[in-house]
Amino acid sequence: MPGRVLLIVDMLNDFIRENGSLYCGPSAARIIENVAAVAKEFADNNEPIIFIMDAHEPDDLEFTRFPRHCVKGSSGADIINELASVAVHGKNVEKVTKNRYSGFFKTNLEELLQRFNPDEIHVVGVCTNICVLYTVEELCNRDYKVIVHRDGVASFDDQAHDWALKQMETVLGAVIV
Ligand SMILES: [Zn+2]
User: What is the distance in A from the centroid of ligand 1 to the CA of 70?
Assistant: First the structure.
């Protein structure tokens, strides 16, 4: 079996919960079960899981474009309860905080991936057309084999979701399953 790593992007209260400050809508709520199932599969096999987590200072400039969300230390920045059991930090579970769309910008993601050295990287989370897309773009720049789970990604914008899946498949060379 190929060495795999699972990236779980922004499955955080502010994006996924209906009362979250940047709620991604019902399509985000619908992927919870699928994401939890994929995460459980990786956890049960003791395969690495990396949580990519938005985490902003209270005055982050991103808030000129989006409502305030995922402020460091707030419950909105926490991983949703449904993933809590796999989010326990251990040898094979890592948490990477970011403050921009790409999971690589000013983070240790590159280093972690070099350590795990996977044959393929599976990606789930939100939003398909923002943090998922810009992180996948960077994975593809690094020639990783990227597998995006169609039922494990979502956006507040269904059209942008469809466009981003197509873009990742046809332009970036990701495999959509
Ligand atoms: Zn953000």
Answer: 7
Expressed in angstroms and rounded, the spacing between residue 2 Cα and the centre of ligand 1 is 32
Would you place residue 135 in the very low, low, confident or very high pLDDT band (cuts 50, 70, 90)? very high
Distance 108 CA to ligand 1 centre (A): 18
Q: Which CATH architecture has domain 4-176?
A: 3-Layer(aba) Sandwich (3.40)
Sign of CA pseudo-dihedral 104, 107, 111, 116: negative
CA of 53 to the centre of ligand 1 (A): 9
Instruction: Output the average pLDDT for the chain.
Output: 96
The reported pTM is: 0.97
Residue 70, phi-psi category: left (phi > 0), alpha (psi -120 to 50), beta (remainder)? left
